[in-house]
From TrEMBL:
<keyword id="KW-0812">Transmembrane</keyword>
<feature type="domain" description="YrhK">
    <location>
        <begin position="93"/>
        <end position="131"/>
    </location>
</feature>
<dbReference type="Pfam" id="PF14145">
    <property type="entry name" value="YrhK"/>
</dbReference>
<feature type="transmembrane region" description="Helical">
    <location>
        <begin position="64"/>
        <end position="83"/>
    </location>
</feature>
<protein>
    <recommendedName>
        <fullName>YrhK domain-containing protein</fullName>
    </recommendedName>
</protein>
<dbReference type="InterPro" id="IPR025424">
    <property type="entry name" value="YrhK_domain"/>
</dbReference>
<keyword id="KW-1133">Transmembrane helix</keyword>
<keyword id="KW-0472">Membrane</keyword>
<feature type="transmembrane region" description="Helical">
    <location>
        <begin position="95"/>
        <end position="114"/>
    </location>
</feature>
<feature type="transmembrane region" description="Helical">
    <location>
        <begin position="37"/>
        <end position="58"/>
    </location>
</feature>
């Protein structure tokens, strides 16, 4: 395998081997860049809006719809990159992200309340976030490695292209891991009522706070007893 097969593409993909020669597979064209940026932005904004809608029970269907649109946007980005690049490690990395996006689509559809399959929604997002989170970490490692044999933080810190690319990949990875842990809380559920995950966490904090206050009160009472005891002894002796 040649060195070109494992070279890390950063911001300039023009010299990367391609699977087709159309404008859809040429990163230097406006069409490719617009389609790539539009779908990535579509995925990010609809995920934010969909998550906000989950705060309102009456908007569950809208949230699922926004998630579905966003997931298709992310999958479109991955599919576009699959059509563009031909390096083995690079394509494997992209395939992991694409699998995660497909799980997102499945999970988004599962969140529609009419289907009554919330487990599909939960596990679709958990598995999708796991695949994408790991894929983004691998992409960041590949960027930090560059053409060398080992990962270098210095490369990420001092090379502008590497720093920018790593920032993009890490940001996407951070979002994926937040969804991974957040959706895991959904799986533990329920999210509403006195037995919800959030309520249990808050109750645990209140219990710890109450225990601390009780301990402090007990300590103050003991200190007061110690101060009053000599006074009581003197009073008894005086009698």
């Amino acid at each position: 395998m040649s060195k070109d097969d494992v070279r890390i593409p950063l911001l300039d993909y023009s010299s990367e081997p391609k699977c087709c020669n159309s404008s859809w597979c040429t990163t230097s064209t406006f069409l490719w860049q617009f389609y790539h940026a539009f779908n990535f932005l579509l995925g990010g904004t609809t995920f934010i809006a969909g998550t906000y809608c989950l705060y309102f029970p009456s908007c569950e269907s809208l949230a699922a719809l926004l998630y579905t649109i966003g997931s298709i946007g992310f999958a479109s980005v991955d599919f576009q990159e699959l059509l563009t690049y031909n390096g083995f490690y690079l394509r494997t990395n992209i395939i992991l992200s694409f699998i995660g996006s497909v799980f997102y689509i499945i999970g988004s559809v599962g969140f529609f309340p009419q289907l009554q399959v919330p487990e599909v929604g939960n596990w679709g997002f958990i598995l999708g976030s796991l695949f994408i989170g790991c894929s983004q970490l691998w992409k960041t490692h590949r960027i930090g490695k560059g053409d060398g044999d080992s990962f270098s933080f210095k490369r990420l810190a001092y090379e502008t292209e590497a720093f920018t690319a790593a920032g993009v990949e890490l940001s996407a990875g951070l979002g994926a891991w937040c969804f991974f842990f957040g959706t895991s809380m959904y799986e533990e559920g329920p999210l509403e009522g006195p037995t919800s995950v959030v309520s249990q966490v808050l109750q645990g904090q209140e219990h710890a706070k109450g225990h601390k206050q009780k301990t402090q009160s007990s300590t103050r009472y003991q200190n007061l007893q110690q101060r009053l005891l000599p006074v009581e002894v003197e009073r008894v002796n005086a009698v």
